[in-house]
Give the backbone structure.
Amino acid sequence: MAPGKTDDRPRVANIKLRSRGRAVLTTSDGETLIVHAEALKLAGIRDGDVLDGKARKRLDLERVRQKTHEAALRLLSHRPRSEREMGQRLRQRKLPSDVVEEEIERLRGAGLLDDEAFARAWVDERQTSAPRGQGLLRYELLGHGVRSELADEAVASVDDRTAALTVARKRAPRLQGLEYRQFSQRLTGFLERRGFAYDDVADAVRTVWNETAAESEQR
């Protein structure tokens, strides 16, 4: 600064920490900003610092990074996510792609994003709540961006024949009273929509029919 000239650039006059990691920043010209305390720390802004354009850019970047991180953690609080799904969901919030990529790398490094673990959890949840065949499970995982080799490993433990029979037994009570042709058509269609192969479906339909039908009607 030239001798005799006064630096009239706004400075940080006060920083007060608030709940939930927030901070209230007041400038020397009376401006008030509510920011993340962590963003202030990462931007290197302290009491008395000049809050010029360069400092504001640093602060804005850290605010976006913190916003992105909080959004990612909220998504993970509901259920595991694949890397592709996380990226898509964050970009839907109009967050910058470079910041999203940084966040994905951060979560991966912390073990919070792991496509292999995601694939196993997806298969386990599906087989508990609504069993389906290997083919459909693999298709779902690929749709979430899981690499084909990881999808193959995750579905390898699924026994399609056992799963088809389990699903058929749960569905059968809704089909009571039908004659065999209608029973077979409806149960077959239901099992096929769950991704089971023809042979496994046929075995399950025949087994469940014979378990519930009168001896004279068994196949």
